[in-house]
Amino acid sequence: MTDLLVGHYNYWIVIFLMMLGLFTVLSRNNLVKKIVGLNIFQTSVFLLYISLGNVSGGTVPIVAEGYDTYSNPLPHVLILTAIVVGVAVTAVGLALVVRIKEAYGTIEEDEIHAKDKSL
Amino acid sequence: MIHQHVSILLVVIPLLAAPLAAMTTGRRIPWIVALLATATALGLAAWQAWLVMESGPISYALGGWTPPWGIEYRIDALNAFVALLVAGIGFLSVLYAYTSISSEIETRKTPLFYTAFLLCMTGLLGITQTGDVFNVFVFLEISSLSAYALISLGRDRRSLTAAFTYLIMGTIGATFLLIGIGLVYAMTGTLNMADILLRIPEVAESRTIHTAFAFIVIGICLKLALFPLHLWLPNAYTYAPSVVTVFLASTATKVAVYTLVRFMHSVFGYQFSFENIPTSWLLVPLATIGLLSTSMVAIGQRDVKRMLAYSSVAQIGYMVLGIGMATGTGLVAAILHVFNHGLMKGALFMALGAVAYRMGSTSIESMRGLGRQMPLTMAAFVVGGLSLIGVPLTVGFISKWYLILAAVDLGWWPVVAAIVIGSLLAVIYIWRVVEAAYFQDANGEPVREAPLSLLAPTWILIITNIWFGIDTRLTVGMAERAVQLLTGAN
């Protein structure tokens, strides 16, 4: 039991951040806060991948004398790509928020809906 | 020599054309760049399809790194078929775009519009070409990010909120896919689809793989707008510029359906997807409820574009139904409907874009009396509508016929009834438009027929609708070949 809780602490952090992020996206009314939630959600996946690549007792994957266990570099490389994707999503999302602010004068979801209804 | 590189060129050419289009100015030059790039892509996709049909699947090792270590592009009858659809619709959309966007997008933004369009097409073609699961995620995000930008170009400010909602939902879907791929990699140690398929049986009982499967299926279902995950779609299609709706409606969700088929059959395998996990019990009820409920919602819409968007969600139901049946005939029906629905929805949205070009609106009131004022446009709409309903001699009939056959084979009579009722509901919502256009008097200023540059691509699609409704050798042949490969591999 202790092993499940303490030994896998990184996965608990991943799950906590994932739920926190998703909850923020779904529950917040403010569009910028939604983007923040989305970022937390994505970050949790980055941590998941980085955890996967870790090999106990492994070092950085550089061939050197005296070391024969290396961490798996592939998930790290994959997640570099995913981080770039995440940054791009944030950029496009924030650009849309700016445009929404210009068009509606607000970034609160309920106020935007109210303005569309009154048309 | 060059025929070995067809598969990669299909992705690289639109990708290289995208920045080229961004460097130009005005309306005509970026259009020519995009037209040349998409025409080349269409030629390559046709060539690739011919190569696959002649000499079997193509395997292309990116950068010369042998699979499964390097990224592999693996093209069989299924990808070749979907790539042909994407490239074909892409080319016709660009042909249509020149006139259509002149009234919807400012000149200043035109080069960037074509850039985003070409990037979106790169992403969609990339998803169809690749045989690497992580590559699927990357291309999915390339296509999605450019799709968000394309949707937000709409004239109505609601296009911005529609794009934002799609961005949130789409990113959650793609991230779910990413989580699933990570978990699959953790259990199998590989990202190559064919390689994963070999290793799944060893780990099929582990909870990690089950979780991975759930994340991947839900993630893709968000992207393909399966009921009840479709909430982003109606607004996105309604408020996007006409040509963007044409392109996205007939390719983006179709490619997502392809991805679902690919993951279920070529990554996890039939055994795992349908026998270890009762996936059919999830997909079939959702698809059936979805196709009935969204068809009913479509009937009540005032805006015809929105009506067709809801109809798209209903049609996705048919495709997912075919996949959920987990039989050969069901899968043939699903793949056929991917292609056929691409053709019919493309044609319908193009006809509607012509109406928007002349009337500035796509509400049902604005279509009153248009049957006499824009006879060719409305005739195209009627033929496309008949295809959507599934009238014989159109493509819609072919795929629904196969779908009903598959349901009868299984003895699923309630599902057969749902398919027929879905078609009847389609009769009702198409009839509302026909009634307004042909049996009501025009209001306001008389308008002229749409220009040839809009009519030509629309009618090319209409003719393919009828052509493939009569001569089914190519479509059914490719779908059956694809299904043989998918089920033979299990």
> Could you estimate the helical fraction of the residues of chain B in percent?
over 70%
Quote the distance from N terminus to C terminus of chain B.
33 Å
Helix/strand-derived category of chain A reads mainly alpha
The assembly state of the depicted protein chains is: heterodimer
Helix count of chain A, per DSSP? 5
Give the topology string of chain B: H per helix, E per strand.
Answer: HHEEHHHHHHHHHHHHHHHHHH
Order of helices and strands of chain A: HHHHH
Distance between the termini of chain A: 58 Å
Largest interface: A-B, 29 and 25 residues
Strand order of the largest sheet of chain B: 1-2
Uncertain runs of chain A with pLDDT below 50, 5 residues or more? none
Low-confidence stretches of chain B at least 5 residues in length (pLDDT < 50)? none
| Overall radius of gyration of chain B | 21 Å
Element layout with pairings:
The complex is a heterodimer of chains A (119) and B (490).
Chain A: H1 2-7, H2 9-27, H3 31-53, H4 74-104, H5 109-117
Helix pairs in contact in A: 2-3, 3-4
Chain B: H1 6-22, H2 28-55, E1 58-61, E2 72-75, H3 77-100, H4 110-129, H5 133-151, H6 158-188, H7 193-203, H8 207-224, H9 233-239, H10 242-267, H11 269-276, H12 279-299, H13 304-324, H14 328-359, H15 370-373, H16 375-389, H17 395-410, H18 413-439, H19 452-470, H20 473-488
Antiparallel strand pairs in B: 1-2
Keywords:
heterodimer; A: mainly alpha; elongated; B: 490 residues; mainly alpha; two-stranded antiparallel sheet; 20 helices
Written overview of the protein:
The complex is a heterodimer of chains A (119) and B (490). Chain A has five helices and no strands. Chain A is mainly α and 119 residues long. In chain A, α2 runs antiparallel to α3 and α3 (31-53) runs antiparallel to α4 (74-104). The longest helix of chain A has 31 residues, at 74-104. The termini of chain A are far apart. Chain B is mainly α and 490 residues long. Chain B has a two-stranded antiparallel ribbon. Chain B starts with 5 loop residues before the first helix and ends with a helix. At the A-B interface, α3 and α4 of A face α5 and α6 of B.
